[in-house]
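Project standup — Tuesday

K.O.: blocked on the structure for the chain from last sprint. Re-posting the sequence here as requested.
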Amino acid sequence: MALLSPAPTPRRGFLQRLAAAGTAALAAGGWPRALAAAPAGSAAPLSDDAWLNRIRGKYRQVFDCVEPNGGFGAAYALNFIDSTKDTLKLVDGDIAAVVVFRHLSMPLTLNDGIWAKYKVGEIIHVNDPATGAPATRNVFRDNIAMRPGLTYEDMIARRGVVVVACNLALTVFSGIAGKQVGIPADQAKQEWTAGLLPGVALAPSGVYAVNRAQEKGCTYCYGG
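H.V.: unblocked you, prediction finished:
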């Protein structure tokens, strides 16, 4: 008599559906379509909105990044802080900049180990300028436009920029990228979550984060 396999748990069933949907969408039209094909509620709910408490000061803006865009999302936030401070004779504490990395920009918040192991450069079509080949390191982390030597970690810790990553995009990307390198979706998501750069907050979705930042008084700026 054939043995019956145990019924998949709801979470495992979701991840299997996610991988199937993402792989089919990837074959049909690339990563943007794979993200769009993710089932509703695919990202596990997150309730920690502590990052919102870091939005202080009178002058507040959120930068909505959906593409790598050469890493300019981080530069825009710093330009906002510096130009506002210089023009209005303020200090950093008077100004708040929030950068939300969602959709295809979310991997910019990951460390070099994740970029190397999961071939992130191939996924989001980013080449390493040093080699001309798909990047196996986060080439944006320590290469902020017009900010030589300033890293994303410094930007968060010393300049007070609030950086938020989209959990929905992380879930979709890690699940599909994990499948391509032979790593289960659960394990891949755990590794990607652990691989976020220090100080990066994880929100249920990028659009959620953009909305909440605006509720907190931020004006909106498209970050590419």
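K.O.: great, moving the ticket to review. The chain has one domain: 46-222. The radius of gyration is 18 Å.
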